[in-house]
Amino acid sequence: MTxxxxxxxxxxxxxxxxxxxxxxxxxxxxxxxxxxxxxxxxAQLQQAASELGLDPDLIAQAAREVETEETxxxxxxxxxxxxxxxxxxxxxxxxxxxxxxxxxxxxxxATGRVGTPKTVGKGFEWLSRSPDPLHxxxxxxxxxxxxxxxxxFDEWGAVFYLLxxxxxxxxxxxxxxxxxxxxxMSPGLFLTLLPGIPALTFLSGRVxxxxxxxxxxxxxxNLIDRLKRALNQSAQQALEATPQTMETQPARxxxxxxxxxxxxxxxxxxxxxxxxxx
Length: 278
Fold this sequence. Notes:
single chain, alpha+beta, 7 helices, flat
């Protein structure tokens, strides 16, 4: 017989993760729709996490990371994706008028683009449209900064798919017509050649486009890491900067002089009068 665990027992973080994972599997086995067929809101997750001693802000950050990972995998595998990167996280450190030029230089050095920096209210943003769209925003979030990055590479698909496929179809039609007139091609071979060349061109374009997207994703994640280091550096500098206190000298006591403490000039005047009269 299984003994129920004590209600007063304290569980470690590792045990909590194991218990929650096991409970989720049991719930999924019992309910086909999983935990809550209607879903669970972020506020409900944060409330449950706070009861377990977890920081609700970390729950929100984890939810954003999960959404980012799901968004990044929505690119069609058939066409060589994913061809986009969406990043949204709250990072330690602040962006100010003083360190904003430094961040702009970091983004330009990492991407090789000039871009257009802007100030929007209390936030900052940097936009580059060439050779592909890249948009980064920095929004104050208390002592931290919310960084959102959006990168798109799908415009390169026209270079790898549309133009080569058009020329491949034209080439297949031209070769088929030429061989048909010369009598050196059977109808079956012509029907094989007509879709074969475009299909081979499509596969070649997919390989090239996939490699380009992979390289672009790596470059974008390197940019994200560089921004993290720059913001972390600003956060460390803010922690190390302590307000300079002025050394105060002890105040000198103010001596009050009254009539008794001041030397009187009356005896001198009397002596001078006596001398004159003599």
